[in-house]
Design brief:
- The protein has 182 residues and is mainly alpha-helical.
- It has a single domain, classed as Tetratricopeptide repeat domain (Serine Threonine Protein Phosphatase 5, Tetratricopeptide repeat, Alpha Horseshoe), CATH 1.25.40.
- Helices cover 79% and strands 0% of the residues.
- The relative contact order is 0.08.
């Protein structure tokens, strides 16, 4: 009986580990939907942490190669090399056309290059793939504001506040534009 007991323990342990590591990632971690629910009740102090968690989840393509292209694009942006960023991010969206974060990050690179048309196109694609992408909505609102279209910018900013009620920067933009858009 003493031999069976240690073997039994190993089998049970192996089974438990197999089940635990074979569960979908969403079953082990908080989901984007749960984080959006938290945002509705979050304090100003909690908002930044929760939005960063959402952005981290959005940055996971499911492919190490695609994640590497995203990282290289972001690194190039950080270093001020928008041309290299656009190249990496174009390769990313070519190979992962359903990965919203690739389009969003490329929109940022286009914007920083002064290319508002392509930036707007990528923001629209981002929002078609991920309608709750508050970063894309904020970017869209900012570009609309720069293009002297305060009414449409205000609509986009208000959509951000529906998703992230305590975004202080967006709250300030709404307050600023409410007088202009009248």
């Amino acid at each position: 009986m003493s031999i069976i007991n240690p073997i039994h323990k190993r089998i049970v342990t192996a089974f438990a580990l197999t089940v635990m590591f074979s569960l979908p990632l969403g079953a082990q971690e908080v989901t984007v939907d749960e984080l959006f629910d938290e945002l509705q009740l979050a304090t100003v102090e909690q908002t930044d942490r929760i939005t960063k968690q959402i952005e981290t989840l959005w940055s996971q393509s499911g492919s190490a190669s695609m994640d590497l292209l995203l990282k290289r694009g972001r690194d190039a942006l950080r270093d001020g090399d928008t041309e290299a960023a656009i190249e990496h991010l174009t390769a990313l969206v070519d190979h992962a056309p359903d990965f919203a974060e690739g389009y969003y990050t490329r929109a940022t690179a286009y914007f920083e290059s002064g290319l508002f048309g392509p930036a707007l196109a990528d923001l629209r694609t981002t929002l078609a793939l991920n309608p709750r992408h508050f970063g894309a909505l904020t970017g869209l609102a900012y570009i609309l504001e720069e293009m002297e279209n305060p009414e449409k910018a205000l609509v986009a900013y208000r959509k951000v506040l529906e998703l992230v009620p305590h975004d202080e920067t967006v709250q300030e933009a709404v307050s600023r534009l409410e007088g202009v858009a009248l």
